[in-house]
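Subject: sequence -> structure tokens, single chain

Hey, anyone have a minute? Need the predicted structure for the following. Not urgent.
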Amino acid sequence: MTAQLSITADNQRRVWVNGQQVEWTGNEWHQATRLQVPLFRHPERENVVAVLATNLSSQAGLDRGLLADVRWNGALLLTNAQWKQQSALDGGWNENDPAWRTPGFNDSSWPNARQQAGNGAQPWGTVLLVHSNASWIWSYFSDAPGKPDIEPVFFRRRFYIDVNGAFVDTPTQCP
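Reply:
Had a minute. Here:
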């Protein structure tokens, strides 16, 4: 089945769905894209959206983040604190190792993302392609002092599609 993924990052992003790269762009945060992406519709089969978001410069206040939604047949998945994240600056993660972007990868040691602000908040304003209830997320609240100019962060969101077509966090048995 095919769903819609609307996504942006401040500043750049690489995006995979179930291990398949669906976008690699240098678009700035105000240039969100809407992509048709493949999902598994079996209630016991894990889906994963994986993103490498990279901030390219520092400024005062909130200045980096990921904002996205996944939509299918009335189901909606938004960026929020349920996403997992791992800063590349913490070491130990290699963007070229495909394991972290595939279903079945154990991300239980990854911290949850920090929800910074809603879509529409300053400094970004409203990003029209992304659902209004999505939140900008990052590995910390990016209004912190002393942050690096270049900062890549890995994000993952695992989910399943139940027999009713809803996005859920745990697998359910097929009837």
